[in-house]
Each structure stands twice: as structure tokens, then as C-alpha cells.
Request: fold
Amino acid sequence: MSLGVLRGPTSGPVLVFELGGESADDERGGFGIELASVVQVLEPAALTLVPLAPAMVLGIMSHRGRIVTVIDPAPLLRGATKPVMGPETRIVLLRQGQRQSGNVGLLVARVREIVPASEMKDSEVSPGSGTGWVAQRGRRLINVIEVEPLLETLVRAFEANAKSRGAQGVTE
Amino acid sequence: MAAYIVVQRVLRIKLAVGFFGISILSAVVPLVAKTFVTDSALLWGLTVLGVLVFGGLGSTLLSSSLTRNIQTLSQFASSVSRGDLSQYVKLSKPSTVPDEVDTLANSINFMLDNLRELVAHIQRTARAVADSARDLSRTAEGVNASTEEVTGSIQQIAKGAELQAQLVERASKIISHIASGIENTARAAEDAAVASNDTAGAAQSGSHMGKLAVDKLRKVFEKIEDAGDRVLRFGEQSKEIGNIVNVITKLSQTTNLLALNAAIEAARAGEYGRGFAVVADEIRKLAENSSKSADQIAELIHANMAESDNAVVAMRESTEELAKGREDLSAIIQSLENITVTAQKGADVVGQISHITREQLEGAGEMVKAIENISSVAQSNASMSESASRAIKKNSASMQAMASSAVELTNLSHELQAVVTRFRLQPERGQGGA
Reply:
């Protein structure tokens, strides 16, 4: 996995959320995403499975006539294997990036809050994550995920999957 | 003596007849001589001589005939005195004109007939007496033997009577024992009757109490069922509240989401949306609090519903248990009623037993009296047997005396026969009359 492009601290607010399997303790930092990269927070709808999709892709759903690919970042970010669906599970619809990844939604266990930039103090880049940086709010540390590397990872996963299917077709 | 008197009379008669004849001749002779003789002296001498001659001749003739017949009678009397009654008196010279001797001979023959008849009768009677004495002796012996047997039997009867008296005494004791046992039984039966009546009364009281308990239990059931209905209604209401809370929660979550998205939009608007973002965030926080409160309410309702469910379950279990208890109680009441009926029947039966036992007791008393009567009769029999034994012993002695008397009578009859046989009633063969 690539370390991705490291960006500097943002000046905008950050949407703080929790991933599946994570403790709901508010004292822990959780994950965050720049609010500028977020289109909307949706309630989880019935997902349609995508054949031969990468493991991180949970399925697709329709939102206002648009197809949204719902992915679970937990295996990538936390190593969790199974998505945990709860009453507070939400889908964070991301704004389309530079890559043509289409409309992508992140499955999160709970949206905690919107933290203004003024309440955060930038920290040094999170070592080894390759997907963002760490912002500090009081004693809590928030892993702010950068959307572009995440989408890049998704696209590459699709491409690798397609390649492996092509190789399988040639050998067959 | 009688024959002598008869002979004397006969002689007197003959002499009178002779003197009468002589007198006649004496009167006739002088008359005849007077006619032929004139001399008186001679006449007188002839007369005297004639008288003497005719008198003597006549007397001799008369005396000889009289003597011969009397001798015949004397010989006949001698023969009779030797016991020969077989012959009749036959005068050697029967007179043409029956005189007193003939009359005497006839009388003697008549007497002989009577004597012969008498002796024959005596002989027959003697034989009969001998036979009877023999029979009597045999009978006496037989009676003696029978008397001994009777004595033995009477002794056995006496022993039997004693044994009977002993047995009757034992039977009396046994009957008395049985009577006392029956009395105890009667007392026990009366006690049992009282106990059965008490049982029946207790069972009836228990049944009544059980019915009261069933009524109370029914009321408890009704209250419990009412409480259960209330709890169920409370559960339903709690469910409705839960539904409402769910709606509130959903609304809160939706409001939260809307507020979140509004905040996102406001943030995207930059400085222009800052105030709106604050309001949206407040709304989101309120929605979040509402959601938390709704969650708390939902938890409380869930807890209440769980409790009410538990209460309902407990109520149902209690109701089922109470229903079982009511069934058990109904069964107990039924059992008590059955016990009442059974105890009443038992009391009736025991009463009948008591009545019968009382009758048995009376019967046993009468039996005791009867046994006492039998005992007295047996004792009387024993004493009577002893008396009979004594009487039989006396009788036996009498019979022995009678047997000896019979023997003596036999001997006497033999002697009588021997005496009577001396009289010969039939003429011996080849022997003519006297």
C-alpha cells in the first residue's frame, strides 16, 4: 500500500466519527474527515452486492438517482474484518475526487460530531497510516482521513481485481 | 271224715229201713200166726221167734248188702287216698231202689269228677306254673342281664352326663368369653360409630371450609386475573409508549441527521453559514439529547415491559398454579364429600354392626342362660343317672331276688307237679275199674 499524498493541516471543520468495532467512549479520539470532502450523511439503506468487487466494497445503493458505492474503511484503517451494523450506523457520502471513482460512501458506526478547525490543534503526520494526519482536540487525538488516498486505494483495488480476473481469463 | 259221716248216715238209714221192715214183719207175723195158731204162748213164742228169725234174716241181709257196698266204698276211698282218681265207684250189688249208699256212691263219683277235674286243672296249672316259672326264671335272667347292660349303659350315661356337664361348663365359659368379646365388639362398634360420625362431621366441616376456601380462592383468582389484565394492559400501554418512544427516537435521529447535514451545508457556506451552523449544531445536540432521553425512556420501558412480562408470566404461572390448587382443592373437597358420604355409610354400617352386635349380645346372654339351663339339665341328668343307676342297682337286686324266687317257684312247681302227678286221672292200660 502506498503511503499516499501527505497534506498539511486543514483550516476547515472535521466530521468526527467512529468505525465498526470501535469503543463508543467519547474520550477516545476516533476518526475524522474534512467536512469539505463530505456531501451528506445518509441513513444506511438496503445495499446491493457487487459481483467480483474488492473485499472493502460492501455494495451499492441508490441516493437521489445516483449510484453510491458503499465501502467499509474499517479493514483498511482498523484491521476489522466484518462491518458492524448498528442503530447509529451511517453512510458518509464523499465528494467526488480527482480520480473517477464515482460516488463513494463510507460506512461508519456512528457520527459523533462536527469539530470546528478552531477547536483543533494540528499535530504531526500520523506515522505509517498513509491516509491523513492527526489532529488534537484537548486530550483527544483524531485521525483525520484524507479522501484522495483512500479513493486511490479503492481504484487500485478495483484495477488489481480486474487484472487478476483478466489473468485468470487468459490462463483459462 | 266226711265219708265216715256219710257212711254213718247210710247205716242209720239202712237200720231204720231194717227196723221198719222188722216191725212190719212183726206185725204181720202174729196176724198170720193167729190165724194158724191158737195157743197164745206158742203164739207169742212163734211170734218172737218169727220176729227174731225174720229180723235176724232181714238184718243179716241188710247188713251184708250194706257192708259190701260200704266195703266197696271203703276200698274206693282207699284207692282215692292213694291218688287213684281214674276209676268211678261201682257198687258190687247195686240196689234196685237207690238208697243213700247209692247216693253216696254217686256223690263220690261226682266228687271224683270234680276232683279229677280239679287235679287235672292243678296238674295243668302246675305245668303252666312250672313253664311260667321257667320262663320267669329265664326272663329274670334275661332281665338281670339286661339290667346289667342297662346298669352299664346307665353308668356310661352317668359318665356321659358328667362329661356333658363338664363340656357344658366349658361351653358356658366359652360362651361367656364370647359374650364378653361380643360386648367388647359392641362397645368398639359403638365407639367406631361415634368415630365415624365424628369423621363424617369433620369431613363435612372440612368440605364446608374447603368450599369457603374455594370461594376465597375464586375471589383471589378474580383479583389476580384482574391484576394480570392490568399488568397486560400496562404492558400493552408500555408497548405503545415504546412505539411512541421509537418514533421519537427515529425523529430525533432524523433530526440529528438533518441537523448534521445542515451543519455540513452551513460549514460549506463558510462565513455565511456560520450562524446557521451553530443553530444546526444546537438542533443536532438537542436531537441527540432527545434521542438519548428517548433511549433512556426506551430502556426504562423495555425494563418495565420485561418486568411486566415477568409479572405476567409470574401471574400466569401463579394463575396456573392457583388453578391447579383450585383443582386440587376441588378434588380435596370432592374427596372430603366422598369421605363424608363414605364415613356416613361407614357410620350407618357400624351402627348396623352395633345393632347386630347388641342383638348378638342379647342372643349370647340368652345362649348363656340356655347353656346354664343345659348345665342344670345336665347336672340333673347326671344326678338322675346316678339315681337311675342306684334304682337300677336296686332293681338288679330285686331282679336277682326275683330270679331266685323264680328258681324257687320252679322248684316248688316241680314239687307241685311231683305231688300232683301222684294223682292218676286215667286208667292204666290193661287195668279194669275197681
Notes: The interface with chain A takes residues 253, 257, 260-261, 263-264, 267-268, 277, 281 of chain B (CB under 8 Å). Chain B has a mean pLDDT of 78.
